[in-house]
Design a protein that fits this description.
single chain, alpha+beta, Peptide Deformylase, about 35% helix
Length: about 180
């Protein structure tokens, strides 16, 4: 299972709305396994397919702590059916926005329907970190990033920083290319 490269802000791919999965087949399950491997390697607790350049409505989550037995979940075509009125705040981060964290307020609990690895339609009621993680990853499927839930001033600062980093990486790659040739 190869580790896939992560799409990093400000790449416009992260703003794409992902397409529904039409068929659960071997290729899709291989992608799910690759996504889990990529997430574990990062390390992270959730990953949406768009974050590895696949605009499909699929995400993976594993909230097991280091040293615990892995408990991977694959959610295909997930949809929030219900959100609680009660709110909670978690410090969120994102594999596509490395080393940046911010407190985000979201509904404390959600009920989600989705297809599992076998293509079976299931529902899950989630609270706590699982609810936050599901909402964060489903946002990705809709082209929404967690920084869209913070103040415009903070968001603009983060985007500016990542645009500069991308520009510096591109300049470095170009300079390295000239030195080699």
């Amino acid at each position: 299972m190869p580790i896939k490269p992560l799409i990093i802000l400000p790449d416009p791919v992260l703003r794409q709305v992902s397409k529904p999965v039409e068929r659960v087949d071997g290729a899709l399950l291989k992608l799910a396994d690759d996504m889990l491997e990529t997430m574990y390697d990062a390390p992270g607790i959730g990953l949406a397919a768009i974050q590895v350049g696949e605009p499909l409505r699929m995400l993976v989550i594993d909230l097991a702590k280091e040293g615990e037995t892995p408990a991977p979940h694959v959610f295909i075509n997930p949809e929030v059916l219900e959100s609680s009125d009660q709110r909670s705040v978690y410090e969120e981060g994102c594999l596509s926005i490395p080393d940046y964290y911010a407190e985000v307020e979201r509904p404390a609990a959600v009920r989600v329907k989705y297809l599992d690895r076998d293509g079976k339609l299931l529902e899950m009621e989630a609270g706590g970190l699982m609810a936050t993680c599901l909402q964060h990853e489903i946002d990705h499927l809709n082209g929404v990033l967690f920084i869209d839930h913070i103040s415009k001033l903070k968001r603009d600062m983060v985007v500016k920083k990542f645009k500069k980093l991308a520009k510096d990486r591109a300049a470095g790659a170009k300079a390295a290319g000239r030195m080699v040739g």
